[in-house]
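yo

u said u wanted the structure for the complex thing, so here. seqs first:
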Amino acid sequence: MTKPPASGLSLGIDIGGSKTHGILLDADGARVAESVRPTLTGPEGVVATTVAVVTECLGQASAPDGTVSIGIGIPGQVDPATGVVRTAVNLGISELDLGQRLTAALGLPVTIDNDVMAAALGAANHLGLADGDLAYLNFGTGVAAAAVVRGRLVRGHGNLAGEIGHIPVDPAGDRCHCGQRGCLEVLAGGGRIAARLAALGTGLTLGTLVQAADAGDPGAVAEADRLCRGIALAVQLVVLTQGSERVVLGGGVIHTAPGLVPVVQQVLKARAAESEFLASLNLAERITVIPADYPVAAIGAALVGLRRTRSKQLAPIG
Amino acid sequence: MTKPPASGLSLGIDIGGSKTHGILLDADGARVAESVRPTLTGPEGVVATTVAVVTECLGQASAPDGTVSIGIGIPGQVDPATGVVRTAVNLGISELDLGQRLTAALGLPVTIDNDVMAAALGAANHLGLADGDLAYLNFGTGVAAAAVVRGRLVRGHGNLAGEIGHIPVDPAGDRCHCGQRGCLEVLAGGGRIAARLAALGTGLTLGTLVQAADAGDPGAVAEADRLCRGIALAVQLVVLTQGSERVVLGGGVIHTAPGLVPVVQQVLKARAAESEFLASLNLAERITVIPADYPVAAIGAALVGLRRTRSKQLAPIG
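structre next:
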């Protein structure tokens, strides 16, 4: 059993496809410890990596006694009530009772949540919108969203909320792996973009996409247009559906393609020029990008754990 | 000044483009009085109609003393905090301080809300999902939604949530009056449908659309396909974005076109047959239609007033 460190600490772990990032925050939200390790995949690998990162973070904390809350963000379908994770494909997990496994291994209670949900809380915290209306859009291999309404995550029935990647926006679009046509994920999911860029055979990557499009490369122009249209549509979709005051963009696609977000904002402004209604929404101005080096999902995971612990203190049954 | 009737009554008024409907509920939710009048348009007309309906309902109540809460649902952009209504086009209102006007005329406090927001509360109440996750989709002249998450309306920043009619779902679609192309409202808004049916010149109406499509009329088949696709997409959109457990359909388009909803459910099932992901959502089974004779917006308006009154009792500043 890992000995819990000083009172009022919160530990957040972001389990990603390539690395697992842990951050320990004190009661004021200052980082007091940090650990990053490559993620070993499969159920055993994920548990082992997480235990190692938790142990490393807690070992760096100076005070020997006190309480710590632990929150975990992980891709896939997560039920925060049970801690069970399903279909975390990139981690090689079909089903894993991660909460129980970690609690047993660490001797400490942990709270598990979907990584995009956790990131939305981290983003709300970063923007000082802890009681506000915000959407976090994640453009990774796929496309997903999480909304904070009046300071609380919108989970939906069966934790389904935020699966916006599979909303079709073009009946003539390419087939999505989900079976539908023209899903948002076909336009703006990193997996599809990488496949299309590779098929061009011109050595074009997400890292050079915007620059190449600026230089007039036809393949890059088409791909950048499609990607920016997809991101712009996703922004519009969450604002019109949930009235999000701010839309935070994150994920590998956003951080890998320099210059992308200003082009998305140009697209939104060009669309607004054709529609008084769109212009009234000021969509381009609602966009915020979390800095690539700000560990939004790990910090959000720490908040997930902290909130859960607090709500349990208030209502022991719940 | 109208004398307030017996304790614990709640009065809900649904101000529609053609008629204004008032319903008085007792503390158990039973209807104790009702009044319907044609809506006089323009600011003065709307105020006069509403005062008449309120007076008529309260006059039917037997007990001479006590408290009553009054809630009003009205189309347009409504700020429930101030009671100001903007751009209620079909009522001839560009801006009206309806809350203040009615409070002055009646001598009683009133709470104003958007009619679709009110209807969502009425639907949640009707389905016994007062603490649940539900979306109400209104297919009237335009298309709008309102979501209840954990028993509370999602209003969004600036009361913007629910404007899903102007989410584009087809880049090759017709131009919308908002300036965009292929908005959901172009597919499934009653105004656009009526214009297209009139342009056919075959006497086809919403009332005969599904029957004519069944009989193979090509114009009816095309229009029914487009309409059902739009409704099906709207259902999918709110479920994937907000995780709504139930999706309630209402509005003139739904109630005027007999046989429409089963066709929408067939469309959803056909789409699910092509996508395991969609199949897992059981979208067709999430749909509920409120009976045409159930005054969902008036009852919801009564709930709006009641909730506001209760929250003020709990938090006088609020």
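The CA atoms of residues 146 and 162 of chain A lie 5 Å apart. Chain A touches chain B through 46 residues (CB under 8 Å).
cya
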